[in-house]
Amino acid sequence: MSPLVLIAEDDRDIADIVRAYLEREGFRTVQANDGRTALDLDLALKPDIVVLDISMPVMDGWDVLSEVRRRGHTPVIVTTALDQDIDKLQALRVGADDYVVKPFNPVEVVARVKAVLRRSGGQRGTGVLRVGPVEIDIAGHMVRTDQGQVTLTLTEFRLLEHMARTPGRVFSRSELLDACLPRSDALDRTVDSHVSKLRRKLEHAGVVDMPEGVRGVGYRLWSRG
User: Fold this and answer.
1) Which pLDDT tens digit goes with each residue over 141-164?
2) Residue 55: beta bridge partners?
3) Domain-by-domain residue ranges, the chain?
4) What are phi and psi of 47, to 5 degrees?
5) Mapped to the 3 state alphabet, what secondary structure does 49-68 carry?
6) Which of 32, 112, 188, 196 is spaced 20 to 30 Å from 171 by Cα?
7) Which CATH number fits domain 4-120: 3.40.50.2300, 3.90.1150.10, 3.40.980.10, 3.30.1460.10?
8) Under CATH, which architecture does the 124-220 domain have?
9) How many Cβ atoms are within 10 Å of 198's Cβ, its own excluded?
10) pLDDT in tens, 70-81
């Protein structure tokens, strides 16, 4: 069955255009014109990816994104008229996997949807990786420590998994950017933001200084124990 895309957009014309382009490429779609409906559809239908407008009635996109992230790892592409770097970084900090600035070409949205699904899909392999006290269940898309399960965003999970495949190796920011994050308009400091959030979550689960920053180079994942 083809992937299901939830289009959360209160502008019906924009939503219809995006839907038409996605369906032409073989995707299934469902639309929501306010934030509350988007969350209801996300819970009921469990879409493969969400295309989420930030400025929506009833509940704005920031609140929707936060709740979707609390629920799990469904990829989210944010669409926004805010084109400042700080707004883009905010979207990524909250847990977006990519963003598109309005006005946009619907062809670009389709390309982003395909790219994010490709990064989050079957090419990632199966099995369990373990580095020190951190266990990464790739098939189950879960991370555990001795204190229990750790809830990560999709991007945080990808970063952790990518580094865990070669423990001790130092990855440059550009390498991590290329392998784990959307390429268009992404900045090296975007990696820093995601790694910082990942580190805080692992610290909360009792794992200190993972991933480790290597000054002037990048990050590595290893266990001192």
Assistant:
1) 789 998 889 999 888 988 898 888
2) none
3) 4-120, 124-220
4) -65, 160
5) EEEEECCCCCCCHHHHHHHH
6) 112
7) 3.40.50.2300
8) Orthogonal Bundle (1.10)
9) 24
10) 887 789 999 987
